[in-house]
């Protein structure tokens, strides 16, 4: 038994190469605060890159399925390379033609919707298993694999452009596998941040940190829109390379917990020990090894007070958010605004305003929840307020 348990401390205290490099420059161990800053910054960019690679599909939708060639020529004819040339010699840019088979047919929009369903289904199923694997494996390695895999299959979707691939099942399989890799992100980054931060001011911290979702969506929209003129494949390959690069950074520098780098938790005011009636201090968080031995199962997780109502709250919030994420640019590009239709890149840029509001709202909600110490009331209030503009938006759409 002793021989089996002795290697554990060495494994727990094996620091990432990036941390060792920073300590060699500083010529002293990094403080708890410095590790916290690294965790916030690195995980912020990690999950932002997840959403940046996820957002590209919505930007390219209106290019793959322009509804008809007549629609494209009518509203995007200014994109021809030379309108002064004779029709026989006139060369239209790739996004001015009939879209991209098989998405340019009468059922093109339905096929694109099927891809979204396949991605989100794989993502949902993968989240269940990712939570289990994340509790039982090294989160730094697990997150790196997920990010590099996401980058690979996001890029493979774009490879269909240069490979002239028009088989629907190619894109379907790519989206399913990409969804499985994408599911590694959220459970991992939340677990790492939870290891480093206690409850004090967690609402504000999480509000600022959670802006990674909106920042990623905005970044993905702007990058994908800017690259459309070079070919829609680039709108997938570049974000794919970005998330793979950030994944390598995660592998080199992310400390998954204070115990993994041998840092004393008592340096942090948010992890200050609590006192019982006999003034005996008790740590707020147990050691890394204890957490791994007591990983929470699926049924046990639902029995935790507050999990079920907050899960339902997040379900309906995500239902609206993902509708906007996947279909808002497509809707804008196919809807007349003041009698005019926006181009695909302009529609993608305009759709980022939704995520700008998400950044402001997330930080504000976090600050309010800390001041009132009422997480549930704050969440419910924001959900109710969210209904008003959505109802007004739907009424104006059908009027």
UniProtKB/TrEMBL annotation:
Family as reported in the entry's similarity comment: Belongs to the major facilitator superfamily. Organophosphate:Pi antiporter (OPA) (TC 2.A.1.4) family.
UniProt subcellular location: Membrane
GO MF term set: transmembrane transporter activity
Lineage, broadest ranks: Eukaryota, Viridiplantae, Streptophyta, Embryophyta, Tracheophyta
Protein's name in the database: Glycerol-3-phosphate transporter
Single GO biological process annotation from the record: phosphate ion homeostasis
Transmembrane segments: 141-162, 168-197, 209-230, 236-256, 307-328, 348-368
Cross-referenced SUPFAM superfamilies: MFS general substrate transporter (SSF103473)
Membrane topology summary: Multi-pass membrane protein
Source taxon at top rank: Eukaryota
KW Transmembrane (keyword) present: yes
Domain Major facilitator superfamily (MFS) profile span(s) in chain numbering: 41-399
GO cellular component, one term: membrane
Cross-referenced InterPro entries: MFS, MFS_dom, MFS_trans_sf, Sugar_P_transporter
UniProt keyword terms in alphabetical order: Membrane, Sugar transport, Transmembrane, Transmembrane helix, Transport
Listed PANTHER family: GLYCEROL-3-PHOSPHATE TRANSPORTER 1-RELATED, MAJOR FACILITATOR SUPERFAMILY TRANSPORTER 16, ISOFORM B
């Amino acid at each position: 038994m002793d021989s089996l348990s002795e290697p554990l401390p060495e494994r727990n205290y094996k620091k990432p190469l990036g941390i060792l490099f920073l300590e060699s420059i500083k010529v002293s161990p990094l403080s708890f605060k410095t590790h916290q800053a690294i965790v916030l910054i690195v995980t912020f960019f990690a999950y932002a890159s997840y959403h940046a690679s996820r957002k590209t599909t919505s930007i390219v939708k209106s290019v793959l399925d322009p509804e008809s060639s007549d629609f494209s020529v009518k509203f995007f004819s200014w994109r021809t390379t030379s309108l002064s040339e004779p029709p026989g010699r006139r060369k239209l840019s790739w996004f001015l033609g009939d879209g991209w088979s098989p998405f340019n047919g009468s059922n093109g929009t339905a096929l694109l919707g099927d891809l979204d369903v396949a991605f989100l289904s794989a993502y949902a199923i993968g989240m269940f298993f990712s939570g289990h694997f994340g509790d039982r494996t090294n989160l730094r390695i697990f997150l790196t694999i997920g990010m590099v895999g996401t980058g690979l299959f996001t890029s493979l979707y774009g490879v269909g452009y240069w490979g002239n691939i028009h088989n629907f099942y190619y894109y379907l399989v790519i989206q399913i596998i990409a969804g499985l890799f994408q599911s590694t992100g959220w459970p991992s980054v939340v677990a790492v941040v939870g290891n480093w931060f206690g409850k004090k001011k967690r609402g504000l911290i999480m509000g600022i940190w959670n802006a990674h979702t909106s920042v990623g969506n905005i970044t993905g929209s702007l990058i994908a829109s800017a690259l459309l003129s070079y070919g829609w494949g680039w709108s997938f390959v570049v974000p794919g390379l970005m998330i793979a690069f950030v994944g390598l950074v995660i592998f080199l520098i992310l400390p998954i917990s204070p115990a993994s780098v041998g840092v004393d938790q008592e340096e942090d005011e948010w992890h200050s020990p609590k006192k019982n009636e006999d003034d005996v201090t008790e740590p707020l968080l147990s050691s890394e090894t204890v957490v791994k031995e007591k990983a929470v199962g699926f049924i046990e997780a639902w029995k935790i007070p507050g999990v079920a109502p907050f899960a339902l709250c997040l379900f309906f919030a995500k239902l609206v958010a993902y509708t906007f994420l996947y279909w808002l640019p497509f809707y804008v590009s196919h809807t007349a605004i003041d009698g005019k239709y926006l181009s695909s890149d302009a529609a993608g840029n305009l759709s980022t305003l939704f995520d700008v509001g998400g950044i402001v709202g997330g930080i504000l909600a976090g600050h309010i929840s800390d001041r009132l110490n009422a997480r549930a009331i704050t969440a419910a209030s924001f959900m109710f307020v969210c209904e008003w503009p959505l109802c007004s938006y739907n009424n104006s759409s059908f009027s």
